[in-house]
Amino acid sequence: MKKLFISSLIFISGLSFSQIAVGTPTVEPNRWTFGGGLGVGFGSNSYFNLQVAPRAGYRLTNDLEAGLIGSVSWQSSDFYKSTMFGIGPFVNYYFARSFFVSGNLQHYFVNYEDKLYDFKSDQQETALYLGGGYMLQIGDRSFMQIGLMYNVLYKENTSIFSGGLIPSIGFVVGL
Length: 175
Hints:
Layout: H1 2-17, E1 32-43, E2 47-59, E3 64-76, E4 80-95, E5 99-114, E6 119-137, E7 142-151, E8 165-173
Antiparallel strand pairs: 1-2, 1-8, 2-3, 3-4, 4-5, 5-6, 6-7, 7-8
């Protein structure tokens, strides 16, 4: 009787703690992703740069993500100061859970002030960044993205940017 009772108790305990696949609904993980980047720079002539670039995306499939990205940058030196704000859509395609290709269209609004010549300017420019990179998993659904992007709309003599090629480092949670 004792053996039957212990065997029954073990059997019932096993059933109560086991997961039964038939009829159990599967919970889809949240498809929203969040992340961005933060940059700080220092240089000669009291140069200081602070940039914040938040992003929010939605995984359309396990490998395709689309969303909005913003960018705010403050620069200052002995000679000038500027504020730049940009916003636009992005799309990322992930493959092999370690690599990505990316497209990012941003429209920038720039306020520039030259301290030496008392000159002020408000400008706008659109940039289309195409590129890709490597992803390093740093948590369960968190990644650090390291990549290289090129602004295909960059024009050397008319652009507010110093070049078309930019490195990118950011973090994403939710992939």
